[in-house]
């Protein structure tokens, strides 16, 4: 096996090990994928100021996100169907994050349930909520997340309607997946993945199946999901969810200054500047380019986090320099999961930590508190 040195190495290995329809599900964006590409590319336009002869001993990447200690300010973003990259994917990713000392966020659309992850981890994780039309089901999810002692609720705001990803349609990715001859062969040549899936009971969307009214299997889930995202979601809903939850609340999917100002008024603990990894509004700006304006508007009122396009520790630091207090990675940990299960997620985190640490030193800084705009050329 080629040496794994960067996130791209994990991506290449995952491409070989995960059936195409599931790899592509992770590795795709909406429509032309221009926002997905911009998320990554715009980081490379930002340049660091190299400094020399500064004492670089005793460095640390430790920080906090919403008041919780993190070994570095990088959380695992909520990603639906992570359990299709690797059997029991959400459990493995949560365990890797826990051991590394960073938050793991479980998606509503996960294969493993809130309870599955809680039973297999020791520390609290975060839960991401999609607000569905069926408010009883939303209440059921919130209450289950509370019972599992989740330490933050991440409320996603940018999916009132689902955008289209061409690759998923072309690959026949549906619930259940279309078993065309091409897909069967594609899976059969990846026996490691298939055996893993056969060896686990966790193959359906366990947060939903058996909990939402009239969803008893994968087929009924598909029609339920297509009509359940709530096009009437409003700031009023954010209020009642905040009330019902009663704990730390993070609002995800803010890309516009005006929305950031509204979000800050809700009294939430943080916002995530995000375009859903380029999976929703294609043609929207990259998250990193949207970040400075939002930090300027609300940075003194609410903690600002960001995600989208982070592929290295350098990208993490660039986001922090531009005012983010925390960052999230989606695909980098999914690639790790697909490539090597839990070990791959740990590897993704280690790569990012190493890159961030060395970059910090070469910029003449020692701690996250030292990180600021003076590290960059503007
Ligand atoms: C996502 N994302 C996402 N967000 C969310 O709030 N709930 C979800 O269920 C999902 N599902 C999901 C699946 C997959 C396969 C991906 C790649 C992404 C968006 C995710 O939380 C995050 O915003 C992006 O992944 C960040 O961009 P990068 O790090 O993937 O470039």
TrEMBL record:
GO CC field: plasma membrane
Residues annotated to bind FMN: 78-80, 107, 128, 130, 156, 252, 274, 307-311, 330-331
Residues where glyoxylate binds: 25, 165, 276, 279
Pfam families: FMN_dh (PF01070)
Gene Ontology biological process terms from the UniProt entry: aerobic respiration
Record-linked InterPro entries: Aldolase_TIM (IPR013785), Alpha-hydoxy_acid_DH_FMN (IPR012133), FMN-dep_DH (IPR000262), FMN_HAD (IPR037396), FMN_hydac_DH_AS (IPR008259)
Co-factor(s): FMN
Active site: 276
Residues of the FMN hydroxy acid dehydrogenase domain: 1-378
GO molecular function: FMN binding; L-lactate dehydrogenase (NAD+) activity
Keywords: Flavoprotein, FMN, Oxidoreductase
Family label: Belongs to the FMN-dependent alpha-hydroxy acid dehydrogenase family.
Protein name per Swiss-Prot or TrEMBL: L-lactate dehydrogenase
Superkingdom in the source lineage: Bacteria
């Amino acid at each position: 096996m080629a040496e794994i040195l960067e996130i791209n190495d994990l991506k290449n290995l995952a491409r070989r090990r995960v059936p195409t329809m599931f790899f592509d599900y992770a590795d795709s964006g909406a429509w032309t994928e221009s926002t997905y590409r911009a998320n990554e590319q715009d980081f490379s336009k930002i340049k660091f100021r190299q400094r020399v002869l500064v004492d670089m001993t005793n460095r640390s990447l430790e920080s906090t996100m919403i008041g919780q200690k993190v070994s570095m300010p990088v959380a695992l973003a909520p990603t639906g169907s992570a359990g299709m990259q690797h059997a029991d994917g959400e459990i493995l990713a949560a365990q890797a994050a826990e051991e590394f000392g960073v938050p793991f966020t479980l998606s509503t659309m996960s294969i493993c349930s809130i309870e599955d992850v809680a039973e297999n981890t020791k520390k609290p994780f975060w839960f991401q909520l999609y607000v569905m039309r069926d408010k009883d089901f939303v209440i059921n999810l919130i209450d289950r997340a509370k019972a599992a002692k989740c330490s933050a609720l991440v409320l996603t705001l940018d999916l009132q309607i689902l955008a289209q990803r061409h690759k998923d349609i072309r690959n026949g990715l549906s619930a259940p997946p279309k078993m065309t001859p091409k897909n069967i062969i594609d899976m059969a040549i990846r026996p490691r993945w298939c055996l893993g899936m056969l060896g686990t009971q966790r193959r359906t969307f366990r947060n939903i199946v058996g909990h939402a009214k009239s969803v008893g299997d994968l087929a009924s889930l598909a029609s339920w999901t297509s009509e359940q995202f709530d096009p009437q979601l409003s700031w009023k809903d954010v209020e009642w969810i905040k009330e019902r939850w009663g704990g730390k609340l993070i609002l995800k999917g803010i890309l516009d200054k005006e929305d950031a100002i509204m979000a800050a008024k809700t009294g939430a603990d943080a916002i995530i500047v995000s375009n859903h990894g380029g999976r929703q509004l294609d043609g929207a700006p990259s998250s990193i380019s949207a970040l400075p304006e939002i930090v300027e508007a609300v940075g003194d009122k609410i903690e600002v986090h960001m995600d989208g396009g982070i592929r290295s520790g350098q990208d993490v630091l660039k986001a922090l320099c531009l005012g983010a207090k925390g960052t999230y990675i989606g695909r980098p940990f999914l690639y790790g999961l697909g490539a090597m299960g839990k070990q791959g997620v740990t590897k993704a985190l280690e790569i990012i930590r190493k890159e961030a640490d060395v970059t910090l030193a070469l910029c003449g800084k020692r701690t996250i508190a030292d990180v600021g705009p003076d590290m960059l050329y503007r």
